[in-house]
Backbone:
């Protein structure tokens, strides 16, 4: 697929490690490698889904892109009207300006709104902080975003506990849109909601994206939801990316054994589906004591000797649709592909 | 169907909560039967009363709840003989009669494994507690053996070491296995699972569901699974009970409910779930509006305000249950030409 | 047109806010003990302040009526050097109540600010402030008071207030610190950080309002605590000098068994005043907590 799409985020070898300290003097004895050497490109206007189970680092990854967590290493380049700047090196002012470009929608709608404050106040604050001094202007913007999420403006004077879960999440989305961001990072935005309300919020998000030409980073553990929302999907395991593919391609042709197990584990509401479920043995290892070599090797049904020692690299498997995978099963094919491409570009 | 085949028979269960001098009926005339050795899924979204129903049956509710029913009958089968227990007549929910049933006959697996286990006691002690409670002659050593056996059965690795560990040393999936061990240790026949895997990862959920399915098929246990995940229902259940705002709106076999979906709420629910492999551009259907506050409900069908087929008749009086086919019933006026359940006609239709 | 719209939004605001307040007031009024507490507090405070404003004579010794039992002229009797006890109790009430309220409020403010900083920033800032609080905790209040009295050779109100605040801020500090440590992980805090709100703003405008309830409740009980502390110190002679009456130092006179046995009015009335006021504060504080906590639910 020819990519003439503009890149908005270029992540290179990102690492977010949390130190583990022991004793009164806080000696560092190890690290929780939440995000471990991740490289990725996000295209403008797309919805990139990031999926994985607990401990895979997807939430930390989203927060690092927002600079709510400090990166330990690597670079995160953001596209400022054609110029790529590394946000990990930003000073306070640049960071403040960046906050207008990238906003986040959090998982828990019940704690995302300050319970002591009226919605009006919670909505006013971001605008005041970013310098909108005129009250009439602020109120106009508030009404604008509320209309986008189908909430009446006179609900502004209510407290959060007067709203249902779905309404609260819509309010959070509206608040994130107030500063007119280009990218919305959504960290499990619908997991805390009922099934029928999830559908409402997801459809709303799709409509808003079309209207405002937003880029979404959609982080969730529910692959069905991620697949519904995303154009491309990234599968993470223990801090690393194991597979990247178009939404449809991931479902039709999952390459990584973990992706296959994940797809197989999802219960499908179809009683005539007689596929045999592949139940994965064991548990996700702790991100503190990662296994050597491929992080998945102790649960992988296709584990080979090399998997125990060498960590596979993420490389292109199918150049036509950009399908990438990090697995020794495909290492040879990928190497051949790279050699062919290198030869072709030299010729 | 006789008492050997039916392990739990609930008829017209009503649970009312008293709050602030106001009475609110949360569970309204719920009736269902659970066949021995089968799995029943109770489906609905938050606020539909599924948890309250099960807690009412197990008599877990406090003094501010009034539980009334024509029948909550549990049929215990021992050595080929059936003993009937009428749970609605047991006056003291925490008295010796109920406590004798909870554990050896009926048990419950709760939703959140993090808070189901007491953090200050060893896991082995928590599992053994129930065993020692119901087997007065058993020694601690014997109990420990049984616990180890259960751990092995449930797939907990290194049971001899894990038995002396504390809950915080376990992962989410392992904790839930321990909770299941506590529920199973006295070998009950009926297990009620209240959203047992909501807090767990998908691959761990698959493991736990496999475990429960094995217990049902191999050990002949009867399972009630409370969930809002239609995928789990399709995989686990033999029969499905759909609830909305405290009422059973549809009840039937898995095929009945999935292939011959009748109630508009069930239809909407099935269509609003994102399914893998949806065609591109296909949008999820949504149910307009939100679940109403139970205190605000007026008469008639609770779903009328959100139903695409609602008529004036729907808002007038309570909707009766209509029998569509043997074992499949629905509470919706669109099927009013079918016989009403409870009237003689319905029984006749079933026998045929 | 937007002008009228914005006005009406704010107007609606007033009616919604007032109905919530009315509901809370009604809930408070249903708690009989709390209302009793509030009434007693108000009556006693007003009486004492009135006494001070009207200039009751609390300091003129009158040798002719020393140790006189209560009668029509002196309804509480007179003390060991003939001063009218009723006037002294009224006047002393002003000072005792002032000491209680001032120290409670100031120690809460100090404790809250330090607790917010320690809880929010964590790491070395937290460690340093916690160590400081532990050093202060180690200091017995008594020793500090005696040191100050010895150094300054004066038993003044100012000294006592200073000592009280310096030895009393740690309980509020610990509570606020713990609340901040748990609340700083709340989603709405992350949201504010995400749109660039300054840290001071986050601490004091976002998190602190959520901690107000326990602070208010603990401040009211601290009022009672400080009044009792003052009484205790005065009883051992380290409180405010005798010329300024406080409930505590009136009690000071009751150190002799002779007074306790024969002039019961000298210690019963101030003792009753302290007990009644402290009890009322506790009832009121309980009632407040019930009302404020429910709002948070």
Residues:
């Amino acid at each position: 697929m020819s990519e003439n799409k503009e890149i908005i985020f270029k992540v290179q070898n990102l690492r977010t490690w949390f130190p583990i300290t022991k004793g009164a003097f806080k000696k560092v004895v190890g690290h929780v490698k939440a995000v471990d050497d991740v490289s990725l490109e996000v295209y403008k206007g797309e919805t990139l889904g990031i999926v994985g189970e607990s401990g895979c680092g997807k939430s930390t990854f989203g927060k690092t892109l927002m600079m709510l967590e400090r990166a330990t290493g690597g670079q995160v380049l953001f596209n400022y009207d054609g110029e790529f700047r590394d946000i990990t090196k930003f000073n306070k002012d640049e960071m403040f300006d960046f906050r207008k470009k990238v906003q986040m929608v959090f998982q828990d709608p019940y704690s995302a709104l300050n319970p002591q404050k009226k919605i009006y106040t919670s909505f006013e604050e971001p605008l005041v902080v970013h310098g909108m001094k005129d009250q009439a202007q602020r109120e106009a913007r508030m009404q604008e975003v509320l209309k986008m999420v189908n909430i009446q403006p006179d609900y502004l004077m209510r407290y959060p506990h007067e709203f249902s879960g779905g309404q609260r999440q819509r309010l959070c989305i509206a608040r994130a849109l107030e500063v007119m961001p280009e990218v919305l990072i959504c960290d499990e935005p619908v997991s805390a909601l009922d099934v029928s309300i999830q559908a409402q919020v997801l459809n709303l998000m799709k409509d808003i994206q079309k209207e405002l030409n937003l880029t979404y980073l959609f982080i969730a553990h529910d692959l069905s939801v991620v697949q519904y929302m995303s154009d491309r999907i990234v599968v993470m395991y223990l801090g690393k990316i194991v597979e990247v593919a178009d939404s449809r391609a991931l479902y039709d042709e999952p390459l990584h054994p973990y992706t296959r197990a994940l797809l197989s584990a999802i219960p499908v509401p179809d009683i005539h589906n007689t596929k045999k479920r592949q139940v994965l043995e064991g548990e996700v290892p702790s991100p503190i004591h990662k296994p050597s070599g491929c992080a998945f090797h102790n649960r992988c049904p296709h584990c080979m000797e090399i998997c125990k020692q060498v960590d596979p690299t993420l490389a292109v498997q199918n150049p036509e649709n950009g399908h990438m995978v990090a697995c020794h099963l495909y290492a040879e094919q990928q190497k051949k592909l790279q050699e062919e491409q290198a030869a072709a570009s030299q010729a | 169907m006789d008492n050997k085949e039916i392990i739990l028979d609930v008829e017209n269960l009503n649970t009312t909560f008293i709050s602030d001098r106001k009475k609110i009926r949360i569970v309204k005339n719920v009736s269902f039967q659970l066949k021995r050795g089968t799995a029943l899924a109770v489906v609905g979204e938050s606020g539909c009363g599924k948890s309250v129903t099960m807690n009412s049956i197990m008599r877990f509710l406090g003094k501010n709840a009034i539980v009334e029913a024509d029948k909550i009958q549990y049929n215990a089968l021992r050595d080929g003989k059936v003993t009937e227990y009428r749970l609605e007549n047991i006056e003291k929910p925490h008295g010796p009669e109920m406590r004798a049933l909870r554990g050896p006959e009926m048990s419950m697996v709760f939703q959140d494994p993090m808070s189901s286990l007491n953090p200050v006691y060893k896991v082995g002690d928590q599992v053994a507690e129930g065993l020692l409670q119901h087997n007065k002659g058993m020694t601690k050593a014997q109990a420990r053996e049984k616990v180890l056996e259960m751990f092995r059965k449930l797939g907990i690795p290194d049971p001899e070491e894990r038995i002396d560990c504390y809950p915080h040393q376990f992962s989410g999936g392992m904790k839930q296995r321990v909770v299941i061990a506590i529920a199973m240790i006295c070998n009950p026949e009926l297990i009620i699972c209240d959203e047992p895997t909501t807090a767990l990862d998908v691959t761990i959920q698959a493991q736990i569901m496999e475990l429960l399915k094995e217990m049902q098929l191999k050990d002949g246990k009867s399972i009630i699974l409370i969930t809002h995940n239609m995928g789990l229902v399709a995989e686990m259940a033999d029969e499905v009970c759909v609830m909305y705002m405290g009422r059973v709106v549809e009840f039937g076999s898995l095929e009945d409910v999935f292939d011959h979906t009748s109630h508009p709420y069930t239809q909407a629910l099935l269509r609003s779930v994102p399914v893998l492999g949806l065609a591109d551009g296909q949008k999820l259907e949504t149910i307009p509006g939100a679940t109403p506050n139970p205190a605000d409900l007026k008469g008639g069908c609770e779903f009328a305000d959100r139903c695409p087929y609602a008529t004036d008749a729907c808002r007038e009086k309570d909707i009766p249950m209509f029998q569509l086919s043997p074992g499949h019933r629905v509470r919706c006026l669109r099927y009013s030409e079918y016989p009403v359940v409870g009237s003689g006609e319905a029984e006749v239709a079933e026998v045929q | 047109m937007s002008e009228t719209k914005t006005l009406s939004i704010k107007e609606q605001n007033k009616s919604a806010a007032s109905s919530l307040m009315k509901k809370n007031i009604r809930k408070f009024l249903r708690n009989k003990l709390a209302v009793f507490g509030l009434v007693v507090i108000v009556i006693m405070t007003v009486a004492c302040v009135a006494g001070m404003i009207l200039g009751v004579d609390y300091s003129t010794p009158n040798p002719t009526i020393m140790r006189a039992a209560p009668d029509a002229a002196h309804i509480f009797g007179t003390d060991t050097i003939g001063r009218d006890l009723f006037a002294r109790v009224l006047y002393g009430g002003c000072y005792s109540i002032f000491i209680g309220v001032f120290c409670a409020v100031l120690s809460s403010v100090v404790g809250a600010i330090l607790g917010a900083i320690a809880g929010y920033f964590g790491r070395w800032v937290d460690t340093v402030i916690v160590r400081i609080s532990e050093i202060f905790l180690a200091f017995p209040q008594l020793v500090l008071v005696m040191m100050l009295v010895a150094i300054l050779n004066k038993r003044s109100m100012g000294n006592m207030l200073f000592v009280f605040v310096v030895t009393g801020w740690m309980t509020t500090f610990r509570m606020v610190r713990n609340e901040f440590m748990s609340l700083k992980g709340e989603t709405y805090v992350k949201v504010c950080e995400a749109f660039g709100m300054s840290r001071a703003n986050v601490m004091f405008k976002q998190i602190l309002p959520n901690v107000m309830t326990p602070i208010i409740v603990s401040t009211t009980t601290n009022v009672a605590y400080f009044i009792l502390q003052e009484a205790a110190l005065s009883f051992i002679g380290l409180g405010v000098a005798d010329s300024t009456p406080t409930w505590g130092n009136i009690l000071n006179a009751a150190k002799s068994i002779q007074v306790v046995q024969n002039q019961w009015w000298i210690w019963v009335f101030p003792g009753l005043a302290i007990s009644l006021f402290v009890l009322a504060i506790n009832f009121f504080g309980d009632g407040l907590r019930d009302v404020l906590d429910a709002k948070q639910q």
